[in-house]
Design brief:
The complex is a heterodimer. Chain A is α/β, with parallel strands linked by helices. Chain A contains twelve helices and eleven strands. By secondary structure, chain B is of the alpha/beta class. The chains are: A alpha/beta, B alpha/beta. The site of zinc ion has 5 residues of chain B, from loops. Zinc ion (ZN) binds next to loops of chain B.
Amino acid sequence: MQSPGGLISGRFHYAAGSLLSVTHLSVADVSAILEETSRIAALEISERAAMLRGRTIALLFYESSTRTRTSFELAAKLLGATTTLVSDKSSSIEKGESLKDTGLTLRALGAECIILRHFHSGAAFVLARETGLPVLNAGDGMHEHPSQALLDLRTMLTRLHGTSAARRVSERSLEGVTVTITGDILHSRVARSNAMLLPRLGARVILCGPEPLLPEDAHGLGAGIEIDRDFDHALTQSQVVMMLRIQKERLAGLELDLGDYIARFQLNAGRLAAQAPKALVMHPGPMIRGLEISDEVADGPQSATEEQVANGLAIRQALLVRAMGGMR
Amino acid sequence: MSDLLIVNGHLVDPANRIDAPHDVLVREGRVAAVDRPAAFEGVEAAETIDASGLVVAPGLIDVHVHLREPGQTYKETIATGTAAAAAGGFTSVVAMPNTVPVNDSVAKLKWMLDPARGAGVKLFAMPAATIGSMGIELTDFEALHRAGAVGFTDDGKPVLEDHVMRAALVAAARAGVPVSQHAEDTRLTGGCSMNAGPMAFRLGLRGMPVEAEARIVERDLRLLREIERAEGLRPHLHVQHVSTARAIDLIREAKREGLHVTCEIAPHHFALTEATVGDYDTHAKMNPPLRAEEDRARMVEALVDGTADCIATDHAPHAAFEKRQEFERAPNGITGLETALGVTMRTLHREQGLSLSRIVELMSAAPATIASLAGRGAVGVGHYADLVLFNAAEEWVFDAESSRSKSRNTPFDGAPMLGKVRATISEGRVVYRSFEAALT
Ligand SMILES: [Zn+2]
């Protein structure tokens, strides 16, 4: 069941079109995905709906996620594909069945690609290895959320350099751009994917947060990753600031004084105006207004959160076409 | 007539300070005579093995294996595990007690050691230090020792409570055997599946800090001191699968101080690093985990400078379906009996220049001493005829499919090895041989 091409990593093989980690993408791959995104976005609705007509895509969600699931599902439907959703909520995931067996069942039912959200880091790798199908990682534990990083990239390029600049990238596309990612880096797959992708396109990435949410081990994300625990200081240098939610459900055992956290790391109007009056504000959602971000900043003119959602839909269409072997 | 005559080999027997061509004569399962080449010319033997080009050494001894019987025979049995041992050159193995049920009573120990289990090499066992390995109530050390226990351990977990470990060390000292400790402060490692550090952070996996190992070693060494002072006993602590520089430094200090502490290092901990985890490869998941390069290098150093007493595999077979799942869900452990010599020879002999004599000491003489395995770990007259014959210069590639173990969970599948076992002799019986290539 192995597609021609694909990716060999260690003793494993992954089907062509899989997206498990941004580290598996070359800059040329990223550029091709962006180009495909723009191409699909320019198509007539009817043309788009013919692209994956008659094809079957499975969404396998072990964790609830309204935005990511809806985004992938809509993307698949806009392309004309048939989708099937298997989630813990609908209790259609058999109790105790292995990820491998669930994946093989979906394959036997005709799924040609599986979009996986899972609470274990690395789950998408297991599913891709065991099924031989292209797998799109829609978030695996604390590891990665590669489609989010790609949609964030497209949002940044569009807002900073214009629509045409978002059609392709090189190693220098984000030269001179400093992106500060602030918040619960430890538990964030969004932070990991962005921190591992953006520097390869020329960006400088600063991670910001208190020690319990941002251990020094975060340097493991790449040689050029910087850590700055002074949010104001990081902001003054930033063209883009990406805010992350505190993942309270994963905080077990970590002590965090929320009042102190808000004082030091909340992105509010006063702080933004004082330190980065022109910076682009991003948030992968869901936002906890009043905690990591204030109302007025979330809804303010510097906020790109709605474009992020729109770009999510666009990028995911390209990723699905790529997974199904239809990319030009 | 003698049973077996081994001629033309190069005997490496560190316990007797021999590293020279010698022939070995075996009678009734024991070494009958060891002498210069051709000294036994004219002696009749049922079988003569021509060991030209081979090292003849005391059979390898592994003080740390998991044979999964009783209870998990789909992973391994005593028969298959000891067959793998024989293929790897081992003539004695010490089974850990974390079977199902846990080996914590005389009846269970006797069942395990019963010849009916079909062990292909000499089987020893370290029963649990506490009932059910629950860490609360000591097992009956005295009765278990009389029934053959060569040490006590709750391996898989540490004996965590200070007063329980103290009592275990005292009881073991009275029996004259070691407490073999899995040094992991499990209060620091809950939910963790690999070494803590930048790599774990990148993979989004919770990491086991090196302190988790060092803290238990430190505590245990303190208990040794206290017991020596207060009880006038000399307890023996054996630290299992040391993986961190911090723990090995503590052990080095303690040895200087004169405490009775020994330790083992597993081949994977001196040959591999956490980088082997790669794309969540569960064949690189074990406990203690593969560590950073700095720690790996310090394990090599400890084996070279003598701080590390022996090599033990922590052979831990698991079925394929158990390893083919999410990294965090997959069980800890890898097989190791058939790759130990090849990895050790390659890493320590070829790359580090460690002598064959020191390697045989680490893999046979020293473990025999640690577990007080009388009459083993040396090729002396009257000793058991436990021998391994291997070609020290032969390079080969390990193929997991060819394994005698029931399981295939090894990161060394396809890895280059040095030193090929040509025959394994257990108490005078040839239990493994692959002569074809050697005789051409
Ligand atoms: Zn252990």
